[in-house]
Specification:
This protein is mainly beta. The protein has one domain. The chain contains one helix and 14 strands. Strands 1, 2, 3, 4, 5, 6, 7, 8, 9, 10, 11, 12, 13 and 14 form a 14-stranded parallel β-sheet that branches. It starts with a helix and ends in an 18-residue tail after the last strand.
């Protein structure tokens, strides 16, 4: 009998709802959606989506990262980073593909080669105004 638990985990979505605040590190084997506030690092083997009300201070690592809220820190995506029109990003982006929608705010450095990390990274302690 074939064990499908691995596929279930990779397809699962962890949701941090609006009104939830988390201080610490979040690690997921699946996908993550954040509409709340996280003060700490986030790592997912799948994709990470930060909703319009989501706020993150820390480092984010995933396959694809879609940002609609506020981020202060470094975002590393193995495949793609999408800055939606409502996003406010202060920090550095490292990815293969970068999509910036009209209206997005980005203050930092970007590297389009995942092996290259920009020098002089913005401090994750810098709060967004």
């Amino acid at each position: 009998m074939k064990n499908n638990n691995i596929n279930i985990v990779k397809d699962s979505v962890t949701i941090i709802s609006e009104g939830v605040k988390l201080d610490g590190k979040l690690i997921s084997k699946g996908n993550v959606r954040i509409d709340g506030i996280i003060n700490g690092d986030i790592q997912a083997e799948g994709n990470i989506t930060i909703g319009e009300h989501g706020e993150i201070i820390g480092e984010i690592k995933a396959q694809v990262v879609t940002i609609g809220g506020k981020i202060a820190g470094t975002v590393v995506a193995n495949e793609k980073i999408i800055l939606e029109s409502s996003s406010k990003m202060k920090g550095d982006l490292i990815t293969k593909i970068l999509v910036v929608e009209e209206g997005a705010v980005f203050d930092g450095k970007s590297a389009m080669n995942i092996k290259d990390k920009p020098a002089n990274l913005v401090s994750t302690n810098t709060l967004l105004k």
